[in-house]
Amino acid sequence: MEKLIPLVNQLQDLVFNTIGSDFLDLPSIVVVGSQSCGKSSVLENIVGKDFLPRGTGIVTRRPLILQLINLKEEESNSDVNHEDPQQDSSNTDGTTASLENRSDQEGYAEFLHLPNVRFTDFGKVRAEIENETLRVAGANKGINKLPINLKIYSKHVLNLTLIDLPGLTKIPVGDQPTDIESQTRSLIMEYIGKPNSIILAVSPANFDIVNSEGLKLARLVDPKGKRTIGVLTKLDLMDQGTNAMDILSGRVYPLKLGFIPTVNRSQSDIISHKSLRDALLSENDFFANHPAYRAIVNRCGTFYLAKTLSNLLIAHIRDRLPDIKARLSTLISQTQSQLENYGIFKVSDKAQRGIILLQAMNRFANSFIASIDGNSSNIPTKELSGGARLYSIFNNVFSTTLNSIDPLQNLSITDIRTAILNSTGSRATLFLSEMAFDILVKPQLALLAPPCHECVELVYEELMKICHYSGDTDMSRFPKLQTALIETVSDLLRENLSPTFSFVESLISIQMAYINTNHPDFLGVQGAMSNVLARKNQHLTTRRRSASYSNPVVDTTKNDNPDSSITDIASSDDVTSVTPNRKLQNFGSDNLERKTFLSYVFGANNSVKRAPMHSKRLSNSLSLNEPVHMLSDQTNTQPQSNYANSFPVKMTDLSSEVESMALEEMTEREELEVELIQELITSYFILTRKIVVDQVPKVIMHLLVNASKDAVQNRLVSSLYREELFDSLLIEDENIKSEREKNERLLSVYMQANKMISNVF
């Protein structure tokens, strides 16, 4: 049990020397109280040395971790006979003195920030505390959380660890910060809020105990008073005839650990340099001779307080040590796991570096392939990634874009009429021109090229994203290696992009190179004619019904049932041959002109043809309402001389003829030819689009995706596995290196602390 407090002291030294903070939440006694409540005097009485700074305002501005270590007789003698060369050399500056010139009963002090320097003059200990406080906290009376660690070795102290905190003040004085109260309160709460701390609340007896700032703060974190012990100071300054027995008995403010009364030196005693030895004797006399306290004299005074605190701390350490050991085990496990994430960096020889490099390349390649195949261990749940995005590009983006293209996009009726006329040459044709179909369908097939190119680019960009996200956390240890891996795979993707792009272009060019009108899925002229006639019959039937509803007076001499007449006309091979502007007025008349199926294809002598494109430039002798039979084999009724004289059109004016075509009325044959061409173009475009939707993803997968997957491993090895590149590629990132070394230090500290506890526990 005697080893428990030294064990905690060793652990404190270990963690503060290596880490700088008490991460283990080691058991300790925290001294709190208001300013000028007597905290410093209590500590000096326990130590038996006058070593703490004194003055007005806040004097303690940094936490002071005070470790009291009891020296046994043999340890004192060994210290007396020991000479340290460093101590002899330090005597030149007057800050330390050799133990040979001091009595072993005087003891000595050591600061953690001044290793191997012993202070036997406790006046210089006070000066060092002031200087260290000024160095860190500054001269503006502000406070700082960085603690000062002080060890005091003496035969007259018990093993004990105390933490002295700044006294709580209400009003800033002088150049103190305006928020000095909140700063101090925050610092105190940080220490007493730890469950492993014992709170030593110091309160002056000559003030109302219910107004004690130390007890108020203690109650905030320890409302039941289980780990709070009270100390009453200045009992000799209480009013005559009063005492603190009600407080000491727990009737006023109950605490499980109770209250202990002390009497310290007054300000006049300090000024007159009254020794602590005399002060302790005066304290004993006070309690022994006081009528109220002499019955409990064995539970009063500094010696009883020190003994109680030592026993209390030992018991507290014993109770909390299993939890500390369990916490250490958890920290060791967490730190080892963190180090495994950073990896074990051993590059003692070239072979070891080669193994590290090969493993990194293998993990990178496997991660790249697994992301495409959907076998990655880190599958995101918020968005599509890897191979799923490639599937979405092919089946959603690409196919939707192609299906949204209008087969007749940018192709007007004027364009079709012009192409038909140009393909016939100088004479009229009997059959629909196949040359016009070829000329018109190829530009429409070219509309499929841009979406195909965009699909290739989207897949390439997605593969580049997969490349940048490939690898694991260990890869980030070597940023140059990671960059080299990404650049190598990026070069491979760029190499495969060019042939993929060319092949997709060739695929569209192949479709445009040969228009296969014998394809089984192609509609053909007969199928197109059937569709066109079906639409015409349906349109004609609709018009007749509309006309019958608008004109109820109908000649029923031909047929009693108008609907049956409409049905017969719609189902027959003949179709009414009237111009679009005259169909409605000629509907139902006896002079309705009828034509055969062949008349739509080959034309008829009695059909009314449109005026030629240059008809608007004819002479006034030619009536605009008189039809001109350009395609008729009959002799033109208009005199040749008049026609020839009325045609002064220049070649430069032909462009305006094309523009006027859209405004002119088409003949039935021209309407039929235009609709047939549109039907054939639509059929062939849809046929080709199906082929492209199927072939382009296959080309991309074969030439870009699968080719990259198959070659990535070999490309990485052939490009990067070179002995001259080992040193440059395996340079560890500075931040990761720092974190890894930090975790290695932490693990070493944890292991040492665990070993210390295991030796005792």
> What gross morphology would you assign?
elongated
Mean pLDDT rating: 76
What structural class do you assign from the helix and strand content? alpha/beta
Gyration radius, to the nearest Å? 52 Å
Helix content range: 40-55%
Major beta-sheet overview: 9 strands, mixed
Low-confidence stretches: 76-104, 553-652
GO molecular function: GTP binding; GTPase activity; microtubule binding
Domain Dynamin-type G: 23-322
Region (Disordered): 76-100, 540-573
Family: Belongs to the TRAFAC class dynamin-like GTPase superfamily. Dynamin/Fzo/YdjA family.
Question: Which key features would you list for this structure?
Answer:
9-stranded mixed sheet, alpha/beta, 761 residues, two-stranded antiparallel ribbon, 11 strands
Describe the structure.
There is one protein chain. The protein is α/β, with parallel strands linked by helices. The protein has helices spanning 4-18, 39-47, 73-80, 85-90, 122-137, 180-192, 213-221, 245-248, 267-271, 276-289, 302-342, 350-373, 387-403, 413-424, 434-445, 449-469, 479-513, 524-550, 562-571, 597-602, 640-645, 654-661, 668-720, 726-729, 734-760; strands at 28-32, 64-70, 108-111, 114-119, 148-154, 160-164, 197-204, 228-233, 259-261, 575-576, 594-595. The chain has a nine-stranded mixed beta sheet with strand order 4-3-5-2-6-1-7-8-9, with helices on both faces. Strands 10-11 form a two-stranded antiparallel sheet. A hairpin with a 2-residue loop joins strand 3 (108-111) and strand 4. The chain is elongated. The termini are close together. 30% of the residues are buried. This is Mitochondrial dynamin family scission GTPase Dnm1.
